Amino acid sequence: MIAIAIAALLIALHSVFSQLSGPKVYGPDDTEIAVSAGDRFSVAVADDPGGFRWVVAAPRPDPAVLRPAGAHEARSGAGPARYLDFEAVRPGRTDLRLVRCRRCSAGAADEPGARTLNFRVTVG
Length: 124
Fold this sequence. Notes:
Blueprint: H1 2-21, E1 24-26, E2 32-35, E3 40-46, E4 53-56, E5 66-76, E6 79-88, E7 92-101, E8 115-123
Parallel strand pairs: 1-3, 2-8
Antiparallel strand pairs: 3-6, 4-7, 5-6, 7-8
InterPro entries: Chagasin-like_sf (IPR036331)
Keywords: Protease inhibitor, Thiol protease inhibitor
Organism: Streptomyces nigrescens
């Protein structure tokens, strides 16, 4: 019995530490993002099986303040999601614009069915 209780406690502690140490995840409604220099964070957007994808759009964020760090897909409570990952480089403020597009070329925001999300990122 004691071994089971200790195992359960260790699993619970691992889960808490993983959540505390993992990158912060923001959603489409989090238009103001505040992070510290060196932090990594993700913006989660609903995945669209209709051929659309989410990309960082022009004008791109100031690379001295914010750097894209890749993307990955995962399931969330609402279904499949795409996570766009970023790293806060140094203190400053920049805008981050995402667009959901099919061709994702110049003028992607004007494609039929396109959608944009805008974020203000402050790195302290």
